């Protein structure tokens, strides 16, 4: 999920909807020192300094964590606090909402089903889910996965705004999410251009259920969580987070960080953004996704057919959109992955083309804009340099 209504009657008038109703009292702690599971790669110290500057910046996150995995070893760099009420920087085993990186998981499910012959990337919504709007019927699975579908983004709808305002913690079925934009036509002709839509992956998840006769949560466990051994990853529909977890906050415009960790039900993001994982599992997933665990070489070639388009929020360097995957071309080389944005969390995970190296960054605020976003992207570029050099 990458957009949220701006106000809610349940919160102070100046507070964005992505904030929670409870303000916390403690200031952000002193910066934590880097923690390494192995000898640090070159430039890791520069990444650490970048995290510290993010935490110290105006409207910066209370805490930040980055992981760098290469040569079978993981370096963990962290700053600030996972919970402003007590000391301690985010840890590699802390749970967090991974936001739209969940789209890469739904892409993995879809491409696995393509490998099995149960789906084709050229299958249409009309052929697989005729109950969905007739106006969407010509959209293909490929167009859903690379956001060239033209299907309207439900997070822009008035119905989503009402849900998030009136009952933000309430359960929302995926069919209800579709209903929020069911009466809307396509935004543009399928395949004619790129535009990020959170509805795309909701439809992908519904198609996966339809062709297998199995719940999407089961498909995630069998196709992704199990083979990648993601033991700390889950697909919740309730707002509670497993302990220990990184608390998510809204900081901008507030005298104190406001805890939004459980403000919005993940059910309203479903296959588009509901997954909870740890930094350790997040890095493991993206390595498996690039490394061929979930689908074969033919599907990987299709996954890597890129069009002009940026992830949301944009990742480092020049962005291009593949199938549930983005290419990030930086001054130090190219990595592939996904970003994410959810109330209280902004995420990024990427890996080398062969999946042998990975990098993640996690901040416990929603996606920043302007100067702070540029600062975050610069830190991510530095992390790519640390990952790929040598």
TrEMBL record:
Keyword Protease on entry: no
Leader sequence residues: 1-32
Pfam families registered for this protein in UniProt: Beta-lactamase
Domain Beta-lactamase-related: residue ranges: 52-369
Annotated EC: 3.1.1.103
Entries under SUPFAM superfamilies matching the protein: beta-lactamase/transpeptidase-like
Presence of the UniProt keyword Chaperone in the record: no
Top-level taxon of origin: Bacteria
Entry keyword set: Hydrolase, Signal
Alphabetized Gene3D superfamilies for the sequence: DD-peptidase/beta-lactamase superfamily
GO molecular function: hydrolase activity
Cited InterPro entries: Beta-lactam-related, Beta-lactam/transpept-like, Diverse_Enzym_Activities
PANTHER family: BETA-LACTAMASE-RELATED, PTHR43283:SF18
Protein name: Serine hydrolase domain-containing protein
Organism of origin: Conexibacter stalactiti
Lineage summary: Bacteria, Bacillati, Actinomycetota, Thermoleophilia, Solirubrobacterales
């Amino acid at each position: 999920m990458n957009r949220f209504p701006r106000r809610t009657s349940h919160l102070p008038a100046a507070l964005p909807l992505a904030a929670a109703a409870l303000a916390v009292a403690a200031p952000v702690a002193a910066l934590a020192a880097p923690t390494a599971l192995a000898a640090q790669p070159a430039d890791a110290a520069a990444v650490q300094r970048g995290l510290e500057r993010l935490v110290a910046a105006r409207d910066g996150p209370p805490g930040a964590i980055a992981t760098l995995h290469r040569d079978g070893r993981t370096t963990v760099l962290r700053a600030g606090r996972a919970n402003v009420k007590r000391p301690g920087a985010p840890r590699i085993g802390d749970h967090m909402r991974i936001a739209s990186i969940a789209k890469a998981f739904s892409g993995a499910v879809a491409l696995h089903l393509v490998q099995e012959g149960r789906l084709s990337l050229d299958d249409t919504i009309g052929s697989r889910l005729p109950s969905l709007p007739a106006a969407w019927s010509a959209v293909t699975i490929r167009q859903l996965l690379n956001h060239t579908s033209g299907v309207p983004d439900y997070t822009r709808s008035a119905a989503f705004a009402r849900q998030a305002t009136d009952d933000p913690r309430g359960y929302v079925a995926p069919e209800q999410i579709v209903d929020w934009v069911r009466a809307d036509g396509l935004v543009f002709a399928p395949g004619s251009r790129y535009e990020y839509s959170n509805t795309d992956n909701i439809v992908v998840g519904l198609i996966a259920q339809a062709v297998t006769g199995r719940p999407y949560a089961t498909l995630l466990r069998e196709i992704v969580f199990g083979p990648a051994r993601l033991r700390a990853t889950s697909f919740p529909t309730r707002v509670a987070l497993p302990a220990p977890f990184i608390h998510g906050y809204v900081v901008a415009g507030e005298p104190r960080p406001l805890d939004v960790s459980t403000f919005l039900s993940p059910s309203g993001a479903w296959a588009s953004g509901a997954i909870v994982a740890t930094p350790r599992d997040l890095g493991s997933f993206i390595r498996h996704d690039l490394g061929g665990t979930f689908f074969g070489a033919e599907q990987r070639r299709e996954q890597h057919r890129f069009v002009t388009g940026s992830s949301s929020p944009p990742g480092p360097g020049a962005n291009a959109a593949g199938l549930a995957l983005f290419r990030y071309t930086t001054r130090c080389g190219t990595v592939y992955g996904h970003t994410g944005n959810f109330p209280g969390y902004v995420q990024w995970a990427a890996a080398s083309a062969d999946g042998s190296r990975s990098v993640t960054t996690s901040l416990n605020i929603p996606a920043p804009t302007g100067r702070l976003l540029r600062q975050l992207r610069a830190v991510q570029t530095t992390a790519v340099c640390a990952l790929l050099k040598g």
